[in-house]
Amino acid sequence: MERNNRIPPLSPVLEVANERLALWSTGISHLDSPRPWLLPGSYFLETFSAILIESIHDTIAKLLSPKVADALFEHLEKVYSIKKDEVPSRLDTLLLVLKTPFGSSSAQVMGKAIAKRFYSRLGLEFSDEPQRTLVGYVESAKLTMQKTSYNTQV
């Protein structure tokens, strides 16, 4: 059996983190925090979105399979013209796509599992609210992270 010694490509989150570290080591002051939500403007949104995309993929891969997670993103692009990096702004469509084959209750459970993983990766405490959807959890996380960013930078 041959071993594959190829190093896997970095995930989008790690690429952003490596870029931040490289810039931070040059002394650029606005990147002196290891927390991605403290990055200004577009850095915050890119990192936040990348973490959300990875949380979606990893959760679906864990619950169903990696092939199903890949197929989900392919389906979103082919049928709904939603590229992988656009999914964070189209979570309502993602939930609709999950609801179609699995039903409303299962889609809600998957949404909460995605939210739990996402909150964990952001370092936030997750509290289950029965009526809240993935969209609500993501919006709440974004507000919390922006408040944290503002309070830390002031």
Structural descriptors:
globular, 154 residues, 0% strand, disordered C terminus, 6 helices, Non-ribosomal Peptide Synthetase Peptidyl Carrier Protein, Chain A, mainly alpha
Walk me through what this model shows.
With 154 residues, the chain is mainly α. It has one domain: Protein of unknown function DUF3227 (Non-ribosomal Peptide Synthetase Peptidyl Carrier Protein, Chain A, Orthogonal Bundle). 67% of the residues lie in helices and 0% in strands. The protein has six helices and no strands. The chain is globular, with a radius of gyration of 17 Å. The C terminus is likely disordered.
Give the secondary structure arrangement, pairings included:
Blueprint: H1 12-25, H2 41-63, H3 66-80, H4 91-102, H5 104-122, H6 134-153
Helix pairs in contact: 2-3, 2-5, 4-5, 5-6
CATH class: Mainly Alpha
Overall number of strands: 0
Number of helices: 6
Question: Average pLDDT across residues?
Answer: 78
CATH 4th-level superfamily: Protein of unknown function DUF3227
Count of distinct structural domains: 1
CATH architecture grouping: Orthogonal Bundle
